[in-house]
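chain below, 159 aa
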Amino acid sequence: MELPTQNLARQAKKLVQFMRDEIPMALAMDIRLGDCDEGHLTLLAPLAPNVNDKGSAFGGSLVSVMTLNGWALVELALRQRGEDCDLFVGESSVHYLAPVVRDFRSEAKLSTHADWATFFRTLDARGKARIEVVCMVPGEHGKPAATLCARFVAKRRVA
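prediction:
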């Protein structure tokens, strides 16, 4: 019997491959899976395809990786529960705090006031739900180099 964490890791790998196959930007940015568990998902990106003219990570790449990371966290939870939904970012805010001068990662988790139980209860009741995710690209000395707070909206697909 497959353990839940093995199943989650397998589904996360499939999801990142889906992103690379279906979202051209994800392939061009060379996004890879870092690690994941029920509460977080990490994406990795090399500096080379995401560099700007100053030799640091392009801000558009940072926000894109964080947005894809937040989307993937929620999409993975939906897939784990067999939900067939369209998922999109409803709103987000980003803060660039320090330059990123090497390969980087984005870490996504639910915001402190969001939880899966409420999200899925709302989805069951209304056919759509929102959930807030926070993402961070770590910088020097454990301080964030960039942060993103985003609200994702899931809507059940109508057959």
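The helical segments are 4-22, 24-28, 59-80, 116-126. Strands lie at 32-37, 40-45, 85-96, 104-110, 128-138, 144-156.
thats it, cya
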